[in-house]
Amino acid sequence: MFETAFALGLTQFARSLSFPERVRHRTMRNAALEPWRLRNTGIDALYYDVKALTADETFYISDCIASEGLIMIVPPTGRGMLTLCDSVEEFRLRGGRDVRAMAVAGIGGSAIGAAAFARNVADAIDAPVAAVVSGYGLGDIVNEAIGGAFLFGWLGHVRSNLEVIDDVVGRPKLGAYGRRDEDADSNRKTGLDTDTVATLLADPSLSFTLIAGHSRGNRVIADALYALKASDPGRLEALTNSARVVTFGGRIKMPEAFTEVIDVVGELDWFGELNSRPKIPADIKVPLCGHSTNTDLPAALQVTKILRDILTGEAKAPVAATEEPAPETEVATPVEVAAAPGTPVVEPVDPAALPVIAKEAPLPVPVEAKAEPEPEVETPADTKPAKIDTAATEPPPALLDATEPEPLTTDKATAAPKASTPIMVPLPRGKGKRPRAKR
Asked: What's 351's DSSP letter?
């Protein structure tokens, strides 16, 4: 907040130094407007990020703080000092052909507010921006008296019609004022700031791809586009194919052909909602934000961050489209792994299927030999049948571990009755029982 107060105090101090010179040329007009202009400068310090301007820039623009139609070329932060241009021709000569963005501020209409808003836009696109000052004259005092300051969205045409008062009294001929002198139409319905914006947009030597406005500046942009639609529809069509409009703090109706319009409104912006068309929905509604863009204050719209996110949103769209097949790959992979042989069993296996699996699996030779035991053969009476039956029927411990326990238990249970009634077969002399198979 200290930086905002410093910028405002420096502007007011420099303004007081140039006041005698300004009063000498247009005594009555400047003496009557000076208190209102100082007030509007303080209002713009609250609603715009004036701390983004350097002390030299603040002192430089203090003399023409409320000059309607003034054009400024505002570079990004750290890229040099801003440039003042009194007319459209001077704007072209001072490098306007390389400028691709335009910013129009509102609220107080001072040059410090317009420069601060343009600096935020320039930081977002990292390129210089053309700023048009809305100004504050005698017609604005009358417009403010009838409520036009609060209802600029609905009574904007009243302000344009009241500018004839400033033309009669005399004011600096800035911006596109020379075009107004050449135009003999007495039923003019636009102001000098609107004429300046329309002249810049209609110039074929200039190319704008971004038009940003805030508060009453949105109304100035809309009037300029409608004026361009009436005077040069072909130029308006070309502009709709190459430029985008981003509005902050108010939703104003634009020409139907201009579809690339993004309206940004704070969730707490009652002033912007009061001057917005209710049938136009907000494209971006920033939570817990109001009408101010001064980042020193709470609930302020961060123009640089919001605009940068808007402009980089299109670059992320194709990347998201290429990531759509990813879920299909993730679904197909588990199916292939589950179907592959030799993998761990995921689902519980039916016990009835175990013999089938054991039969299909390769078994060692001892298991196959034990799978089908041959009938027991007893020796003649001089031998001991009990010991022979136990040694012949009981397998060694290694064989018990390799085979299933249930079949072995069944064989031992059936072997007991065979030992009680042995089958005696006479064998040749000198031979005993069948030798045990080697394992």
From this structure: G
Task: Please state, as a whole number, how many other Cβ atoms lie within 10 Å of the Cβ of residue 325.
Answer: 9
The 10 Å CB-count burial string (b at 16+, else e) for 326-340 is eeeeeeeeeeeeeee
Distance between CA atoms of residues 65 and 42, nearest Å: 12
Find residue 405's DSSP bridge partners.
none
Rounded distance between C-alpha atoms, residue 35 and residue 41, angstroms: 10
Q: Can you give the pLDDT of all 439 residues of the chain as single tens digits?
A: 778 888 888 888 888 887 787 778 778 887 888 888 888 888 888 999 999 999 999 988 987 877 888 999 999 999 999 999 999 999 999 999 999 999 999 888 889 999 999 999 999 999 999 999 988 766 677 777 766 666 777 676 777 777 777 777 777 788 887 776 666 555 556 788 899 999 999 999 999 999 999 998 999 999 999 999 998 999 999 999 989 999 999 899 999 888 889 999 999 998 888 888 888 989 999 999 999 999 989 999 999 999 999 998 853 433 333 344 444 444 444 444 444 444 454 455 555 554 444 444 444 544 444 444 555 544 444 444 444 444 444 444 444 444 444 444 444 434 444 444 444 444 444 444 444 444 4
Distance CA 26, CA 172 (A): 10
Q: CA angle at residue 273 from 269 to 279, to 5 degrees?
A: 145
Whole-structure pTM over 0.70, yes or no? no
**Which helix (H) or strand (E) element contains residue 262?**
strand 261-266
CA distances in angstroms from 327 to 125, 138, 324, 336, 337, listed in the order given: 36, 65, 7, 15, 16
Name which of 151, 52, 62 is nearest 106 in CA terms.
Answer: 151
Q: At 262, phi and psi to the nearest 5?
A: -120, 120
Q: Which amino acid is at 381?
A: A
Instruction: For CA atoms 223, 229, 234, 238, give the dihedral sign.
Output: positive
DSSP string of 69-94, one letter each residue:
T-EEEEPPTTS---EEESBHHHHHHT
Q: How many helices (H) and strands (E) would you count in the chain?
A: 20, 8
| 198: its two tokens | 């329309």
Are the CB atoms for 360 and 370 separated by under 8 Å?
no
Q: Which residues contact 434 (CB under 8 A, 6 or more apart)?
A: 374, 377
CA distance 120 to 210: 13
